Amino acid sequence: MRGSNLDRVRRGNLATVLGLVHRGGALSRAEITRTTGLSRSTVAALIAELTDLGFVLESGPGATAKVGRPSPLVHPDPGCVAITVNPELDAVTVGVVSLGGKVRTRVRNEVGHPVTAAETVEIVVGDLADLAPELASSRVAGIGVAVPGLVREGDGVVRWAPHLGWREEPIAAALHRATGHAAFAANDASLGALAEHIFGAGVGVRDLVYLNGGASGIGGGVITGGAPLGGVGGYAGEFGRTRPGVRDPADRAVADGTLEDEVGRARLLALLGLDSADQVELSAALAASADRAVRAELARQARVLSVAVSNAVNVLDPEMVVLGGFLADVLRADPEGFTGLVRDQSVGPASEGVRIVPAALGADLLMIGAGQLALHRLLADPAAIRDRSGVNGPPAPDRGA
């Protein structure tokens, strides 16, 4: 029994140290020792084991003003990666994200129609074949899929993705069968909230609301008390399907419209004269445009969006609201004006300290979130790799198929 308890402690300490390095980038042994409260010899042994497992690397000591021998730096091993997938109305984006939340590769596959789940799998398989030389020297922890829809947390079945037309699609199981890699799926905006909380604007923030605007509408995610709010089935955060009260009837674009009916990327693209654009291209075009119609539409969308954000502030009392995708562009058009609109419509004390900011991770956000999803088993128990054949382990049961 004693040996079993010691093994559990060791495995827990391995996860703690790997988590610190994953979130913090390059940390010295001394920083890890101070943060964990473990002895120097224990930390040295844990780092040696994580190095042997292929999850961290050590480099020469960093510069320090302190007296004594400098401490070596511990980095996430960039050779340990996750494959990420984000199916949208206009494109399927496939990425390679390494430990530490670094996007190594992004491939945008433009499509002229809403892709089926089967077509998404075909695209991923094709991209992985193209990426085979790059991945040959890497260890793949799994595949994470960021889906614009309701995804059942337990088995990665997409219950409903209205813009894609998916219902009861076992996308995680299908990708596992096609690639041999463990696969996981979750709502895209929930993963965006997680990414911003761990690596972006929300680092150190325990209560935040994230809203994401993409080609497939608007989604949301909530971090409360430092942990994701999932709900019973993992469906929490569907802000896009709510119906905000539009104060000025002239601002309403769709009778009885939902938030994503009223606040939409397609209208901005049309005014810019663009058929399609990724988020980087859209942000650049909006920032450069002096067209009055474009500025007026951004202002209209800001007024409607402010209602939804103020409702979230009133209900959830967050420290921060993060806007991603094209919603960040709506905010950037007039950040002070938007914040003022939210505060005017919020309960006074709840809105006093809330910060409303654009997502810090930009176009990488959903890739990083999906990567975190794929890496979660490894981060929770790094030592489990010794019990499995490779990072992925044996084939998972075909749940939901």
TrEMBL record:
Molecular function in Gene Ontology: DNA binding; kinase activity
GO biological process terms, semicolon-separated: regulation of DNA-templated transcription
InterPro entries on file: ATPase_NBD (IPR043129), HTH_MarR-typ (IPR000835), ROK (IPR000600), WH-like_DNA-bd_sf (IPR036388), WH_DNA-bd_sf (IPR036390)
All residue ranges annotated as the HTH marR-type domain in the record: 16-56
Pfam family, one: MarR_2
Stretches that traverse the bilayer: none
Keyword annotations: Kinase, Transferase
Membership in a protein family: Belongs to the ROK (NagC/XylR) family.
UniProt-recorded name of the protein: Putative NBD/HSP70 family sugar kinase
Organism of derivation: Saccharopolyspora gloriosae
